Amino acid sequence: MPGILSSVRIGLVALFAGVLTFSTASAEAPKSEIRIGTDGSYRPWSGTNAAGELEGFDIELATAACSEMQRKCRFISQPWEGLIPALEQGKYDILVGGISITPQRAKRFSFTQSYGNLPINVAARKSAGLNGRKTWPDLKLALKDKTIGVQSGTQSQKFVDAELKGEVTVRLYDNQDSLNLDLLAGRIDAAVAGRSPWIDFTRSDNGRDVEVLSPDLDFAEFSYLGVGVGGLMRKNEPSLLDDWDKALCALKQRGVVTQISQKWFGFDIATAPDVARCQGKQ
Description:
About 45% of the residues lie in helices and about 15% in strands. It is an alpha/beta fold. It starts with a helix and ends with a helix.
């Protein structure tokens, strides 16, 4: 009998130890991979290099955020018009790539805190003679009856619809590259986009004949354009949102966002840390 009891005790101890081991392993299991969706053709926020690799401000910043969170992340690119539907369908956990934070989008989705802010600008060929206007009313008058290109579904389209409806002929594009090509070819007189793609384009050999027109169309003047850019995610991801916000706070405070800004834009586009978000208050 003692031998039997000893065997039972040993078996129970082993079983209990196994339960403890399983519980510990479960508690320490790594979090799932974060799937990041991006356009891949909206430089310098998100672009694709000659090797077919994603690069840009948002790619580098998101990579730094993933490292800060100690999370594995995977980038997936597809055209802008399909990104938000794919996010809603669960294909992605977060979208990045110069996405403007607006009240309309915030009704349907959650945004991380803003991490960058740039104005919208009109661009045209240097030979068009449209520069030299110091105010938006003056430039708007010069654009009257012109053909204006803009990427569909962007804040720039919202601006064109709000400010130029009935004044110009609008041509919509699926991506910035197609817009640039038609601007160079003279199929449109001018184009409207966020300042960032114009920075990249006018630095290139192809874009040397294009100039960014004054004035800057600032978010402060046109409040409906939002307060800058952030990561977009579904509303049912509070834990991921909190983790991402805290990572952004740490990166801002250490000057990492500024460093990445300088690399991709040539100046600092970083916004100040959101104190509430830094403290986990969404």
